[in-house]
Protein 1
Amino acid sequence: MFSCRVNELHELRLLKISDAEELFALTNVNRDYLRQWLPWLDSIHAINDTRSFIRSTIWQFDDNRGFVAAICYDRDIVGTIGFNWIEWQNRIGYIGYWLASSHQGKGIMTSSCRMLVDYAFDTLKLNRLVIACAAENHRSRAIPIRLGFTHEGTARDAEWLYNRFVDHEIYALLDRDRSNYTSDMVVR
């Protein structure tokens, strides 16, 4: 089971089926904002869609292919973070995340990513982490920069986003290049 306590108010934990209603409501409230950057919103129409998504993340975790964790702040789910997939042969983890607009600007996502980086290198023994952000999503791009990731380039027309292609900025961090930051991570 994956769970990391960032501080007394902030925790990362695996999604569970009982989170479906809360996660669907959060997605719905943030739908217009998230639609600027994420391509999956049109597939989430009802709580059952969110329930199916959570089931798929549980299977992904059970199959050791990655995972999605709830970002909890003051006991409420405020977003998700995880490994969209893990390429075990090359020890590469591909990180994805989103945060409710009402909780941005508080350091929650940077702290969440820092915990995931520590977990990836220290526990999973991955060698390389990758974050791909839409080129115009400056808030998302600021996260890997803050954490010392290297900008490796632009993947042109990397994703079809509803009615247009968007470029992705690619950031990577190798275990040997990781910054010497301290972490208060407690993994259970």
Protein 2
Amino acid sequence: MFRVFIVTAALVLAALISAGRSEALLDPAHPSAVESDYELIVVEIDNCIYCGLFRRDVLPTYRNSQRARFVPLRFVDLNAPDVEKLSLTQPIDSVPTVLVVRHGQEVGRVAGYVGPENFFHAIERLLPELP
């Protein structure tokens, strides 16, 4: 019985540590996050099937990627007032739309849900080589 408790406690601790690291990758204000000129902003809406697929199929892989250490990713609701503050090159006509932002200015985008493989290929083309 005691061994089961120890194993369970170890698994919970590992999950908490891992979760803390994942959030650091997404939060540029977190002390362990690397400072970057770039950011990915995912514009989505509530109850969007494709936005949910993005979160399910793409987000976990991105969080665990080397790229996430240098380019944080955050979500913004299309109907939120914050969207008006984004410097967009054109209107958003499909969701999810992933904006590649440098110093607050849009420099590229991936419009719509394109699946994990195509998303990562597009991001590789849109972002410069980072350390």
Protein 3
Amino acid sequence: MKKLLFIFMAMAIVFTSCEDDDNISSNPSYVVEASDAFVVNYGSYSSTVGSISGFDTDNSKMYSYVFESVNGPAMNGKPQYAYKYNDKIYFMGNNADEIFYVNSSTLEQTKNGVTSDIVKPRFCVGSGNYLYISCYGGNVWNDASLGYIAKYNIKSNTVESTIAIAGGPEGLEIVNDKLYVALNYAPQIAVVDLNTEDISYITTPSVTSYFLKDASDNLYVSLLSTYSDPSAVTGLGYINTTTKELESTYALSNVSTNYTSIMTFNADKSKIYVAAGAYGESGNIFAFDTATKTFNTNPYISSIDGLNAVSVNPYTNELYVLISNSTTTTGKLVVYDENGDYQSEYQTGIAPAWILYKDQVTE
């Protein structure tokens, strides 16, 4: 097992919307098996460690501290992002900076994390025997040239090489052996030919953060205005991956700058839900129709205090909204149906940021 900074009690605490707390420490394998979705809780950068909550949607239960109940110690750091690939879940860890993984069926961690050539990892995407990992490389907000892509071999568990990309590489997607890299500190998208590692760029009207891939392998990208790189244009961009051009932009004010799941397809990809809201104000979720290429005028869900992330359950089409009002108290997952009507809510760990669906296949 890897060296870990904190020891949490092996007894996990269960929070549900309708039942008293249950003691699950005697059977953590049941909890993992029963959970069909895992909430990734970042914690806080300077203090609180990250955690995993297990969501049993059939029985309407949320299980806390699932990682600890399986492995004993808590995570050594904060999960900036988590990615299911083949039979593992890979975590991009912050403070300490590392890549570590667990078995996707049991959540057991059996090897130490990798720290060599991993500095401020952000996001990853898999292809063959490799994960391509975006890394800030240091204080990118002071020196945008520090960024790079780490090419991580999942067989040898080593970073084989790095590809320098300035501008704060963030979200990633692969189409036709081309790695698309959203840049959070430059108004461009980098495109890396994975066969030659040649790099070209797509000019964008603002900085970008994450992608969604449609049924034709074209990409939607979030367009942002940030404190360090303000822009008058925010919303979604549409990238034609055949021509490798930004084909269209669709305006939406105050698209979220959170480093979380800020946009998500519904189950059949006919809609994209986007988190938006001015700094210091309640957030809203808007629905974008992928057929008409338009946003609804009114928010799909409005006035959400602490809006941190959104996700759609691909099996039920329910919308999950992750709430984080601070980095010192627990957050929550709020469930809405397809019509945007409130259904239920559950307590999570601190700063819930992403949701992984256990049986969902990585595209």
Protein 4
Amino acid sequence: MIDESIHRRKRPRWMPLIAPRVLNPPNEVWSEEQWAVLQRGMYPSGMDYRWCTYAVDRRWYAHRSWTGQGIFEAEFAPTEGGWRVIAAVVESGDVNSYVSRPDRELSDLLRRVIDIAARWNVEDEYSWGDSSH
């Protein structure tokens, strides 16, 4: 079990979704290894990253890194070959630019953010500005 207080201490200014709207979940399956990475969370310290993420139990959260506003929440469940999203919501309030986007586009964005977070390696962040990579 993941201790939610650890995530709150890392990003105390994170705000929950204000007006969640049900979103069709993506169809992809993420491996056990990717699920383990998603549970550790993505906490970039630089301004070059748009998202911060964390998981509590089987619920995964994605916030905008600059504002702390919650944008996505996704419920994961085990399935053959790994983990999949079984339910998802997106922020639908006027606090963001996602309000007018079609569901299909938002579902694809959720999938892409999960993909980024599932491959997150903190070492990558430190090599961001390194011209040798």
